[in-house]
Amino acid sequence: MKRHVGIVVIGCFVMAGCHGSEGRVAGVLLKKGQHISLTEEEQITITLLATDPKAEITQADADYDPADGTFKVHGPVRDGIPPGEYRIVLRWTASDEEDRFQGVFSEENTPLSYTVVAGKAQEIVIDVDEKTVMAR
């Protein structure tokens, strides 16, 4: 009986450790030092793509709030995503589906990347003019 209890306790710690290791990522998207305002038919999509093809998750999407230029990345576990290196893909479209960023931040071309750290909330600033990602 004691052997089974020990296994259950260890299992709980392992499971808690897995969930606690997720990194929560949020931030702001800037153009010319300001957040990007959108018309009613426009939208911005923000996607993080894992650079490791064997990563636990390969893609995480974010919700962009045009009112203040903020975004929050949603992962499969709670609000976090597994630690690791991610490329950041941006797309700014309207009803015509033409990318206002002209493919600069497409999956094939994006110069943006960020390393998610385990177990902590992270705020980042993406500057589309400078093509940079910085921790806040």
Task: Please characterize this protein's 3D structure.
- The chain is mostly beta strands.
- Helix content is 14%, strand content 43%.
- Strands 1, 2, 3, 4, 5, 6, 7, 8, 9 and 10 form a ten-stranded mixed β-sheet that branches.
- The N terminus is likely disordered.
Key features of this structure:
136 residues; mainly beta; Immunoglobulin-like; 10-stranded mixed beta sheet; 1 helix; disordered N terminus
Given the structure, what is the number of helices?
Answer: 1
CATH fold assignment: Immunoglobulin-like
Uncertain segments are 1-20
SS-based class: mainly beta
Number of strands: 10
CATH superfamily: Carboxypeptidase-like, regulatory domain
Overall 3D form: globular
Q: Cα-atom Rg, whole angstroms?
A: 18 Å
Strand content: 35-45%
| Overall pLDDT confidence | 85
Report the top-level CATH class: Mainly Beta
CATH architecture label name:
Sandwich
Fraction of helical residues? 10-25%
List the SSEs and their pairings.
Elements: H1 2-20, E1 23-31, E2 34-35, E3 43-50, E4 59-65, E5 70-74, E6 80-81, E7 84-93, E8 113-116, E9 121-127, E10 132-135
Parallel strand pairs: 1-9
Antiparallel strand pairs: 1-2, 1-5, 1-6, 3-4, 3-7, 4-5, 7-8, 9-10
In short:
This protein is mainly beta. It has 1 helix and 10 strands. The radius of gyration is 18 Å and the shape is globular.
